[in-house]
Amino acid sequence: MKKYLILLLIISIQAFSQEYTFGKVTQDELNMKFYEKDSTANALILYEEGKTIFIEKNNHIYIKTVVYKKIKIFNKDGVDYADVRIKLYHNKDMKERVKKIKGLTHNNESTTALTKNNIFTNKLDEKHSEVTFTLPNIKDGSVIEYTYTIESPFTFNLKGWTFQSSIPTIESVYKAEIPGNYKYNRTLIGYLRLDKNISNVKKHCFKVQGIAGYADCEVLTYSMNDIPAFVEEDHMTSKWNYLARISFELSELEWFDGTKKKYTKTWKAVDNEFKNDKDIGGQLRRKSYFSNKIPESILNTTDVVKRAKKIYSFIQQHFTWNNEYRMFRDISVTNAFKNKIGTVSEINISLINALKVSGIDAKMVLLSTRNNGFPSKLHPVISDFNYIIAKITVDGKSYFLDATDKTLPFGVLPFRCLNEDARVMDFKNGSYWEKIIPIKNSGEKVQMFLNLNDNDEFEGNMRIIYNGYNAIKKRTEINEVKESKYLENYEDENDFLEIISYKNKNLTDTEKPLVEEFKIVMENENTTANKIYLNPFFIDKLEENPFKLSERKYPVDFGHPIKYDYIASISIPDNYSIESLPKNKSFVLPDNKGLIMYKITNSNNKIMLNLGLVIDEVKFTNDKYIYLKEFFKQLIIIQNDLIILKQN
Fold it and tell me: Distance between CA atoms of 582 and 233, rounded to whole angstroms?
């Protein structure tokens, strides 16, 4: 706190021009039945505004932001937008506060105010809390408005403004007055452009008591109009990569006496900090602790890759992940090893130490998970990272390693880590970016050998082979429950399927494909007096297209290449003939990045069919969305085509 005592500021800031009057709604807003530009919207942000200024209070500098929102609720599905959550940050010495919360619900016949009894504060974790409230008396057609003020002592944490949300917005405005002493990097994120981008200078608005001279302020106004709703779909990374928003990052504080403090650092400086840091840096120097923990039989393995695999397996089987990441603080690899449970950081730093003990040069790697968003590559923003893994290089081949999941093969990262780029922390030669390239052999192959019996049921054998991420997912699913429960769930998910017997192979050997073998009976639901309408896709039938938007502004990201094969041999008895078979079909994505191939034949009352699907590309830009949408539409059509059998 002492370093802030000299920062006694007198800030002269004129009030922003009012764009709204709290408590005032129009009859048109109350009478609105739907939004013409998006008739599917359950609610609509009529107007929202944020205003940020810097103030001095109690010998400290605060960032003060006043937030206002007015929202139209069209129907019961829009009621959730009357629930407000405000996330706040704190450390041991200081904390953010929210004040002056006001809320009103306007209906044609009445206006109801939010009461203090309906405002709650909840602890989220060691660093965050949350203030919540719900606007009262919500009905179809209500207009709600609320305002609150956040005061933050963390000048590095100018939060910026998010213009886009999950419902459409007519107008979103953000204004700020920033003293020239504070220099922020700012980034416009997303695919939408600003309708208003104004920057003016306000002279002599910033002064420090006891020091001659004034600083100027930069007065900013950003706004967007007619903002479409951001709709999340399958196969995407974090929405924060694409939501229209403006972000700020404090790069430098320059004071009147000429002293400067840089907040945006170089990677060289970050490397040195990590190397000497008492938390992560100190934990990376626990090699001696692991020297007598690794069995001699592992350390004496001469083949380097085999030795690395054994160490990886040893750490992987020793630890249980507690589902926490915790990158930078409260890390203890020794305590975690003793207790056999740890965070991502504790497990993978233990792995790094163990590899080093065996003479293998292992490096720490920082990354951001898919749900966390992309890290900035313009300059180091360490808070962008939330995950630590290991990297080794043997005979010119690199391996990324994560020992948190017992179903992961050596050299394969969990799906959550497939987020494009990672930062390899090479403390000797300097850190560098490296692209995360997913394995290509992920896939599933289904083999059916069925006969139509006297009860008009299909019985026989089914074999499924899983590779790569499909095997990881299936192993996790099998291990989470008892086998009887797993089979019960399997039958529930696949209508009319009865499992007579079951076994699997290579469940614990993650280096081999996982194989499941079933003996099954399949009742056919589409049977008339003399005909059977057979859908040959007894399992894995795609029920709906994952791509439903008319237009998607952000890319499609599958995480890894996809391969799927469905092969079926169906024998029909002599008392039936095949009246109709679906046609052979194929569909190719542009540039041959994906293929659907469907072939079906009949020979001596034996139906042979093969559906193959391949998607080679991991990431598709939004201009390819229309082709992907059609691709999966064709897949659904194929999987709904029926075979017609006629009784002789």
Answer: 31
CB 559 within 8 A of CB 594: no
How much is the pTM? 0.88
pLDDT digits (tens, 9 = 90+) for 610-634: 999 999 999 999 999 999 999 999 9
Q: What are the residues facing 450 on neighbouring strands? A: 460, 570
pLDDT at 14 over 60: no
Select from 386, 430, 438, 373 the least CA-distant residue to 411: 438
Q: pLDDT tens, 447-486? A: 999 999 988 899 999 999 999 999 999 999 999 999 999 9
Q: pLDDT confidence of 207, banded at 50, 70, 90?
A: low
For residue 6, pLDDT beyond 50: no
- Could you give the strand order of the β-sheet that contains 83-89, starting from the edge strand earlier in sequence? 83-89, 128-134, 119-123
Distances (CA, A) of 469 to 113, 387, 561, 563: 52, 20, 10, 11
| 238 vs 564: CA distance, rounded Å | 26
**CB-based contact 458:521 (threshold 8 Å):** yes
Distance (Å, whole) CA 530 – CA 528: 6
Say which DSSP state 15 is in: P
CATH number for domain 443-465+516-647, candidates 2.40.10.10, 3.30.1490.110, 2.60.120.1130, 2.60.120.920: 2.60.120.1130
**Average per-residue pLDDT for the chain:** 91
The tokens 């056999």 sit on which residue? 340
Q: What pLDDT band is residue 208 in, cutting at 50, 70 and 90?
A: low
Q: Does domain 30-262 have CATH number 3.10.350.10?
A: no
Please tell me the class of the 267-435 domain: alpha beta
Distance CA 541, CA 529 (A): 26
Gyration radius (Cα) of the chain, Å: 30
**3-state SS, residue 434:** strand
CA-CA distance, 14 to 541, in Å (whole number)?
63
Distance in angstroms (rounded) separating the CA atoms of residues 493 and 540? 9
In the chain, where the domains are located: 30-262, 267-435, 443-465+516-647
Cα separation, 545 vs 619, in Å, equals 18
For residue 232 the two structure tokens come to: 């999340």
Residue 335, SS3 per DSSP: helix
